[in-house]
């Protein structure tokens, strides 16, 4: 036995840890919760994962508004299961953030106090039942484009959460599209509802990929760290290329007169996105921001006594 | 029995390993592939009405649980409540489809177009006076404590019933009950666990839990009284006399409420069936307005 003072291993120096981390990223391997990571990486991840989790939870509301009124029992089952899935997505993602030292209750407080953002798309109201289908098709569709690359995120728990989430999102997208197909085969009124919903959701769905690359402050670092895999504009382009043929098959018109195939690239060119609207909505002034947050706040505050009771009970019955 | 297995298969399909998630869950035609022939000696009209009673209970309670969506105390509870709602909705669909398959559609079929399936004609195009749910499920949710007390009482009662219905002479009903037993066991235990936490949690939660128990208890008055339809079906080996459930249900409820350190109120005197005969309060009318409004606005639409 050596003397206690000599027994302690020397603390590995920061440079060595950084080198090990860099090598992990360079080799496209996963960083796990116990691994050393730079503070910026940890903070950037918490911000991204929390924002994603908040979006899942707030995203329950626009469609949740139709749960009681779903026009058939089959549609009610599909919608209830979807809204439940989104709660599950929020849970996995908050758990992933917790592996980085964040705390779910604290993240929720930050959401409610407006210190954290969530996807601006959920600040638009759902006016008809066609909105449920269009959200599934376009919003879940855009989410898939955003998230499939994240299944290879450099952070292990996030990547694994994304694999499960993506599976379910693609199911949601198919369900949404199938609802729209059914409605398009229905009455004239139903077809008009679908077109109207597409008119309202198309542009906001394009904004889901975030600001253009030349105006996206965190993107470069996130890409270097493997937290993000593709640029906003690249993902947006993929989404447009995927959606145009689907719109044609459905028989709806996307509300963009400039939308056309560029024969030289095989990709679709589209019109100018209204970034002023995006900024207005993301900074809290969209049509439904106040309502969305108010409902989260009410769920927290009105039921605080329930959580207090559960905590008190657990303490009494510990041991 | 061969056709019983078919029923099981169709039902099991919706309940694979990840049944609580949309992914992999079957949503289509609830009685697809099921032999719906009514065995000899059973009056199809009675059987249909009985299915409406049990189906309406499930549908109305599902609607109540769904009112919590996006408002629940925590995300785990969002998932759990949606899960119970989905189970009840599944039971409702099977039972309404069964009622339709034996021809019990009432005025609903006149109002709904042919393209609307029976389950939807029954759910969306009947008026309140044709609904046969009990008062227990139609009452407002109240706070979370009252919601959990009602869920506890409703699922304890329904579990006691479904356990016995597994040997019903109607094979469809028997299969629905067999599947439902697992679901209802979960609902009952989930609600019971909450009642323990709330009763034995803080002073405030204890007060609310007791208020919930006191508010829900009177709604049990007609739970143990049979209608004529039920009496005839008991004779035919199809239904269970609700009076038979009393000891089990009151026993379970007394045990849970006592363990939750709450006072067990006196059981109300038995009341004659009311909701089962289509008599309801304004709560059901309001609930049905939410449920049916959109479907009725577009009677020619397909969804
Ligand atoms: Fe999601
Ligand atoms: Fe989704």
Automatic annotation (TrEMBL), chain A:
- Note the NCBIfam families from the entry: PA_CoA_Oxy1
This entry's Enzyme Commission designation comes to 1.14.13.149
The record ties this protein, via Pfam families, to:
PaaA_PaaC
A GO molecular-function term, please? Answer: phenylacetyl-CoA 1,2-epoxidase activity
GO terms for biological process? phenylacetate catabolic process
Q: Give the protein name, as stated in the record.
A: 1,2-phenylacetyl-CoA epoxidase subunit A
Q: Name one GO cellular component term.
A: cytosol
Keyword list, A-Z: Oxidoreductase
Q: Source organism's superkingdom?
A: Bacteria
From the UniProt record, report the name of the gene that encodes this protein: paaA
From TrEMBL, chain B:
Q: Which InterPro entries match?
A: Aromatic_CoA_ox/epox (IPR052703), Ferritin-like (IPR012347), Ferritin-like_SF (IPR009078), PaaA_PaaC (IPR007814), PaaC (IPR011882)
Could you tell me the superkingdom of the organism this chain comes from?
Bacteria
GO BP, one annotated term: phenylacetate catabolic process
| A Pfam family matched in the record | PaaA_PaaC
One GO term describing the cellular component: cytosol
Task: Write down the PANTHER family for this protein, in alphabetical order.
Answer: 1,2-PHENYLACETYL-COA EPOXIDASE, SUBUNIT C, PHENYLACETIC ACID DEGRADATION PROTEIN PAA
Q: What is this protein called?
A: Phenylacetate-CoA oxygenase subunit PaaC
